[in-house]
Design a protein that fits this description.
Layout: E1 9-12, E2 22-27, E3 30-37, E4 40-45, E5 59-61, E6 64-66, E7 73-75, E8 92-98, E9 101-104
Antiparallel strand pairs: 1-9, 2-3, 3-4, 4-8, 5-6, 6-7, 8-9
Keywords: 2Fe-2S, Iron, Iron-sulfur, Metal-binding
Protein name: Nitrite reductase/ring-hydroxylating ferredoxin subunit
Organism: Methylobacterium goesingense
Length: 107
């Protein structure tokens, strides 16, 4: 029998991010950040996979999330790290913007 997969989790109203590009949230015991890149919003793990820096203190520019500690950056489409770094990709989850608010589906 296949393991049941959890459904989407409600994050809050669509205005949750306000005018910020990066907002920390806690979802099901996980520390995540919501990152707005233009009109798209993604959820990402909050700790950098390199040395655990707090990515909520980073910045988002041109489709990339930049780590505040070492300036490595992550592609917000697939989590891949910028050239010259050799550690795993950033874990991302899609965020759906619905009339009733923001929803994330965690793997």
């Amino acid at each position: 029998m296949a393991e049941a997969r959890p459904g989407p989790t409600y994050l809050g109203p669509a205005s949750l991010l306000g005018d910020r590009a990066i907002t920390p949230v806690r979802v099901g015991g996980r520390q995540l950040i919501l990152v707005r890149d233009g009109t798209r919003i993604v959820a990402a793990e909050r700790a950098c996979p390199h040395e655990g820096a707090d990515l909520s203190l980073g910045r988002c520019a041109a489709g990339r999330l930049h780590c505040p500690r070492h300036q490595a950056s992550f592609d917000l489409r697939d989590g891949s790290v910028s050239p010259g770094w050799s550690f795993r990709a950033l874990r991302l989850s899609p965020v759906a913007v619905r009339p009733d608010g923001l929803w994330v589906s965690l793997a």
